[in-house]
């Protein structure tokens, strides 16, 4: 492997009139990676993908593929392919002709095209369905044809725009693993654009969480989940509880804050906020502890269990603290998730090393 | 509500159709009249169709009309499709509203005025009137119809199909040929047939823009009728009605052939 990344975006900016869709964004994606661009709608992730594909030209900044500047290359000359959200299968062509389209543009010999189309049909488990028309296929089959069509040219990079959005829940689950397998088998770098954090968490080696045209954080899914860099990331990736307050003193590796309701809480902090400045503590529902009130315990507050839901082996509690804050707590049965009841008074607390104090 | 038609409904429906089609039906029926007198039924005969094919003048006019219709429909289809693309794809270019208005104006403008305007233009430019001036006149009308039909198809066109083709390595020109054109072809064919029928049955514009030796069929029929009705006219009219009717039917059917959608 060379030193240069497969794809490099260098300080790319794209605006539509007054609306800045992508702002001064830099990003490196190495070869053979499953990368996810995650963010709410309107965060600029679709624009970013269209910039990489070549359907949009950046106002500023450069895009490199394998060290070569492709910023001004039109889409049909870029060795990048894309799977569209609507799949965009050509309705007047059979499945086989749809898949063969890319190779035909390269002017490949007929025999090679036929053989490679067969290979792709096998890869996406659609052998024998090459003569069908797109409107004779189910949603899941269309998704596979779109994938096969985008992969047949063996692109260095495959862009996938919300690849699972049009599928039902069960199919989505299976397809996630099929996409991961396709990525491993082809060695192509996949860049998935999605608003669904579950998809990104399951499939991606690394993910970028976007907001307002910029990247808040890049990292492995687990890293992003456990060490969110901003309040937006903590809230968007997975469920969390927030406590807002002002820093009152420094602790080893962290800070102690006081919330507006007089609650004093400790948490780890990677930054160095000034005393008195505003920060937000994020604590995941599974990291909150429940204990019997009255026993001496710090870093928490007493409260009352409002609701208790049992789902997929986990108990979820909604608890109203004495300060008026609502928190979510999640416990597996083994952790004593079954022993608490609705209406019960409990003490909710957490270990400082499980919580993060976030400045932004 | 009860499905089905009450006697009153049926009567109104019948009256409506009668109002529209009885005159046409009479022409068709009398074209098979054995009698030389146009208004007296003398038994069934196809003799007027036979004598029609011996009538050089009428055949000559029919041939001119068909050639004018084909040429102007072809021109209309090309220009109308271009106009539809300009309206649907080029965003808000300057004077877009004006262009839209001008494009649709001939649909509602009295044909006499279009004909007169064209006549003034041709005379002013010193162009000899004949076959091609009629074609130009009919194209001004036909391209509006093509533009309307093709624009409707383009409005429902999924642009990501074209992006997908380019993404797979097709140049913009190749994308147009392989993807866009096949998908809007039904609308273009429908537009062609509409322009064809409009040209075939036009009398007003043709009479302003024709010259010696380029008399179209409707003009020939009109001048013959002034000299007195002959059953031959009924026969040629019946053929004309047949061609126009079939073309319009085909236009409707073709345009309904939705390109199979994969949304």
Largest sheet geometry of chain A: 6 strands, mixed
Q: Which fold name fills CATH's third level, the topology of the largest domain in chain A?
A: Rossmann fold
Helix content of chain B: over 70%
Output the structural class of chain A.
Answer: alpha+beta
What is the terminal separation of chain A in angstroms? 37 Å
H-E order of chain A = EEEHEEEHHHEHEHEEHHEEEEEEEEEE
The number of distinct structural domains of chain A comes to: 2
Oligomer: heterodimer
What's the count of strands of chain A? 20
Hey, roughly how much beta strand do the residues of chain A contain?
Answer: 35-45%
Read across the widest sheet of chain A, the strand sequence of neighbours is: 6-7-8-3-9-10
Which sheet architecture does the biggest sheet of chain B show? none
The CATH class label of the largest domain in chain A is: Alpha Beta
* The CATH class of chain B: Mainly Alpha
Fourth-tier CATH superfamily name of the largest domain in chain A? P-loop containing nucleotide triphosphate hydrolases
Low-confidence stretches of chain A: none
Helix content of chain A: 10-25%
Task: State the CATH architecture of chain B.
Answer: Orthogonal Bundle
CA radius of gyration of chain B is: 22 Å
Concise synopsis of the structure shown:
The complex is a heterodimer of chains A (360) and B (263). Chain A has 360 residues and is α+β, with helices and mostly antiparallel strands.
What would your notes on this structure say?
- Chain A has 2 domains: 7-232, Rossmann fold (3-Layer(aba) Sandwich); 239-358, OB fold (Dihydrolipoamide Acetyltransferase, E2P), CATH 2.40.50.140.
- Helix content of chain A is 23%, strand content 35%.
- Chain A is built from 8 helices and 20 strands.
- In chain A, helix 2 packs across helix 3.
- The longest helix of chain A has 18 residues, at 169-186.
- Chain B has a single domain, classed as MetI-like fold.
- Chain B is built from 11 helices and no strands.
- Chain B has helices at 7-30, 47-52, 56-89, 96-108, 111-125, 131-155, 159-167, 172-201, 204-209, 217-226, 231-256.
- Residues 259-263 of chain B have low confidence and may be disordered.
- The A-B interface holds A 53-55, 74-77, 80-82, 84-92, 101-102, 105-106, 133-135, 142, 149-150, 153 and B 158, 160-161, 163-172, 174-175, 178-179, 182-183, 259-263.
